[in-house]
Amino acid sequence: MHRTKVALLGAGFIADIHFESYHRFIPEAEVVAVYARNADKAKAFAEKHGIPQWYDDLDAIINDSGCEVVDICLPNFLHCTATLKAAAAGKHIIIEKPLAVTLEEADAMIAACKQANVKLMYAEELCFAPKYERVRKMVKDGGVGEVYMLKQGEKHSGPHSEWFYNKQLAGGGVLMDMGCHAIEWFRWMTNNSRAVSVYATMSTVLHKDITECEDNSVMIIEFENGVVGIAENSWAKHGGMDDRCEVYGTGGVVYADLFMGNAAVSYSKHGYDYAMEKADTTIGWSFTIFEEVFNQGYPHELKHFIDCVQHDKQPLVTGEDGRAVLEIIYAAYASAAEGRKIMLPFHPKVERPVDLWIEGRKK
Fold first, then answer.
1. Position 335 in a domain
2. What sign does the CA torsion over 210, 217, 199, 139 have?
3. CATH number of the domain to which 83 belongs
4. Beta strand pairing call for 252-257 and 4-9
5. Burial of 300 (0-12, 13-18, 19+ CB in 10 A)
6. Which domain holds residue 47?
7. How many CA atoms lie within 13 A of 320 on its CB side?
8. C-beta separation of 328 from 309 below 8 A
C-alpha cells in the first residue's frame, strides 16, 4: 500500500492532535518530517513521536523532505507564506483555521494552488465530527422539517499559546480563533447558502491585561435561504471546553454537545430515517447515538484529504470555503464597531480583521 508522505508544519498543540490522528487512524499516510521555527522544539517533537526528519527551515522541509502533502498547523500570520511556498513546490495542502489573516492573503493562496494544480483543503473539523455529522444526517433525513435557525457555540477560558492574544500574529481574538468554526458549520448545514448579512457584538472581559482583541462575541448571520445562524464564542468562560450545537426546524429540534454524553438529544414530530422505515421509533424525544471516535473529527478530515490526494478528488471543504468564512468574520468585526447590520459581500482593506473593531470604536 502506498503511504502518502506528510510534512507537518508546526510543533504545538494542534500539531500534536494532527500527528496522533495520522498515527492512530490513517495508515494510508506517514508523517515523514516536522517543522518548527525553534530548532529545539522541532527536534523534541520529532523525537517524541518518532518522526525521522525535523527542520527549522521552511523551504528545506517543503523541498527536501520528500513529502507529498504539507499539513499547516502554524500561527495565523504564517499561513499565507507557507501555502505559497508549498504550492510553488507542487505539494498538496491542508491548512488549519482560519485560512488566512486577510482576504487578500486568502485570494493569493487560492490562486497559487489553482495555478500549481495542487489541492487545498480548509481543515474545518466540525464538518467531520461524528456527533455533528449524525445531526446533519438527521436533518437531511427530514427529522426536524425545514430548518429555520442554527446555533453553535465554542467557549473556554483562553488559548494555550501567547500568540493567539497578539493581533499582529492572530489577526483577531476569539472570533478568528473559534467563531470561524460556527460560520463554516452553518454553511455546511445549509449546503453553502450565501450569507447576506452579519450583526455582531463583542467585548474584552477577562483578558484586558494581555490583549486588545475580543474575548467574548455573539454573531447573527442571515443566509440567503432564510436560515439564521447564531454563534456564541468566548475565551472568558471558566470550567473547561464547551462545544455544542442546536438545530431548530418546523418539525423538530436537535441539541448536540460535542464533549458531553454519547448522544444527540432530539425531538421530531414525524420521525426520520424514512428510507429504513423506522420513523415510528424516532417520533418524539430520542437520543441518537453517534460514532464514538475522536469526537472533534480531526482524523476524519485528515483521512478524507489523504484520500483526495491519493484518488485525485476534490476536498469537501476548500480554500474558497475558508475565504467565505473570513469575509463573514470581517463583517462581524465591522458590525460590532458600528452597531449595525453589515451586508455582504464585504471587502474593506485592512491589515488585520480585528482592526475593523478596534479602530472603528474610536471614530
1. yes
2. positive
3. 3.40.50.720
4. unpaired
5. buried
6. 4-126+297-318
7. 9
8. no
Give the whole-angstrom CA distance, residue 158 versus residue 213. Answer: 12
Question: What stretches of 265-318 show up as alpha helix (H) in DSSP?
Answer: 298-311
State the DSSP code for 142.
T
In a shared domain, residues 201 and 332: yes
DSSP 8-state symbol, 116: H
Residue 33: all three cell numbers together: 518530517
In this structure, the strands spanning 4-9 and 29-35 are parallel
Question: For the residues 138-160, what does the mean pLDDT come to?
Answer: 95
In-domain check, residue 17 = yes
Specify whether the CB–CB gap between 163 and 177 falls below 8 A.
no
pLDDT tens sequence across 216-265: 999 999 999 999 999 999 999 999 999 999 999 999 999 999 988 878 88
Bridge partner list, 192 = none
Q: Does residue 348 lie within any of the structural domains?
A: no
Distance CA 68, CA 62 (A): 9
Banded model confidence at residue 277, pLDDT cuts 50, 70, 90:
very low
- State the Cα–Cα distance between residues 247 and 144, nearest whole angstrom: 8
